[in-house]
Amino acid sequence: MSAPGPTTESPKFSRTFWTANAVELLERAAWYGVFVALTLYLSRILGFTDIEAATVSGVFSAGLYLLPTFSGAYADKIGFRNALLLAFGLLTLGYGSMWLLPTLFEGAGLVEYGTEVEFHGLDASWHKWLFVPVMLLVMVGGSFIKSVITGTVARETDTETRARGYSIFYAMVNVGAFGGKTVVKPLRASLGNEGLIVLNLFAATMTAVAFILILLLYKQKVYDDDSNKKSVREIAQALVAVLKQTRLLVLILIITGFWMVQHQLYATMPKYVLRMAGEGASPSWYANVNPAMVVLSVGLVTRMMKRYTALTSMTVGMFIMPFSAFAMASGNMLSGTEPILGLHPVAFMMVIGIAFQGLAESFISPRFLEYFSLQAPKGEEGMYLGFSHLHSFLASLLGFVTSGFLLDAFCPAPRTLSATELAQYEAAVAGNGPMPEAYAHAHYIWFVFVGIAAASAIGLIIYGRAVARIDARAAAEAD
Fold it and tell me: Quick check: is 246 in a domain?
């Protein structure tokens, strides 16, 4: 009888590690389910105009990119367990309030505007602005999650298990995001626009379950690195230092152009698709094409570009983005044609454009942090990387606000049309005749983003050459 061969034991993780990853999945499902439909909720449920809805959503998104570094410092001070309880408590209260808000005031009800049935109980009242403090609850609560969960993964793994630990973490992020966006369509299909209200109850349930899991299963430890905590003041000083670095600031501004286009997945795409392709479209499902493409392409792209510099890889991705926006514009230019693979031309070309976005992201995102860290002063890379998402902060503000004005100009809400235009719009969505003149140039929205993406790509080339020239001159002077 032969001796058994060697076995490879699977890495074992603590209960705290698995709890952190489980609540990450729940939080991502809640967040993406709500965020992909947020502008629809604000306009169709609370009665915000396109410009108002875009501005509020942009501030919401921007805050979630700026606050985590500061929230992380506060989490270090009060402990990860307490920080997560605070976060999920705020998130549950915030999402729950978004569910309750439309029904709190007298006169709330459904109003039909052609094919676009909207809930307009608050559109003639200041009460709709109560969403702002509710939004702050979700913003502050959500800002704790990323830093605390990633910090937990780091602390609950060692050198042998860390890679596997982060692999599990990113899998949970993607599963949660996919599930959250997928649930939007069934709710809208079964409940109409009231599904946009019930969606917030789904989110509140997810975060309430996460709160209970943290309360029962998450164990706080004392770590050797607890003495290295940074204060909020020190982090604010670091932010000022980053903004004084001209090279970093220019890079952030250039990459902001890429993310402005990327954010249209949430800012413009849901309203655009539903208005141009009809209520049967599934924008929340189309949004899942982006992470799917990243998962499918990032490994291949990374191997293909490993011999090239980070700046070269980023430049390739930047030049893909104009094609992404142009594909999104093409759908309206194909209007009147037969469905493509069962999809309205607008929806089909939107999916193609989103796929290009995911491919571009595979070239850019994995290498941006690498390049960003190289621009930071030696020994201060970690502190500077804490602000590596400033581009998304700016892109949220600029991208969402721009979207609001463009939608208002080229693809307005059907409820703003005259009775004659509304009748023509209804017929067009049903496949009987052309769209009203108000929608004839809807694709101009995407032409604007073609221009932004192209300008950013060209700007990155100029930036790379300028930086190389400056570094060469500095090296020559040093010799």
Answer: yes
435 in Cβ contact with 317 (< 8 Å): no
The DSSP code sequence of 240-301 is HHHHT-HHHHHHHHHHHHHHHHHTHHHHTHHHHHHHHH-TT--HHHHHTHHHHHHHHHHHHH
What is the total count of domains within the chain?
Answer: 2
| pTM score, whole prediction | 0.86
Judge residue 394's burial from the number of C-beta atoms within 10 Å of its C-beta, 0-12 exposed, 13-18 middle, 19 or more buried: buried
φ, ψ of residue 434 in degrees (nearest 5):
-80, 160
- Residue-wise pLDDT for 245-288, tens only, equals 888 889 889 999 999 999 999 999 999 999 999 888 999 999 99
* Beta strand segments in 102-190, E: 110-113, 116-119
Q: Is 150 buried (19+), middle (13-18) or exposed (0-12) by CB count in 10 A?
A: middle
Which residues of the chain are modeled with pLDDT < 50? 1-2, 6-8, 106-117, 120-121, 224
289: Cα within 13 Å, side-chain hemisphere: 24
Those residues whose C-beta lies under 8 Å from the C-beta of residue 303, and which sit 6 or more positions away, are: none
Taking Cα atoms as reference points, which of 380, 267, 274 lies closest to residue 325? 267
Output the six-digit token pair for 157: 């793994």
Which domain covers residue 465, as residue numbers?
241-479
User: How far lies 212's CA from each of 74, 206, 209, 280, 422, in Å?
Assistant: 22, 10, 5, 37, 49
- The whole-angstrom separation of Cα 456 and Cα 454 is 5
The answer to whether position 225 is within a domain reads no
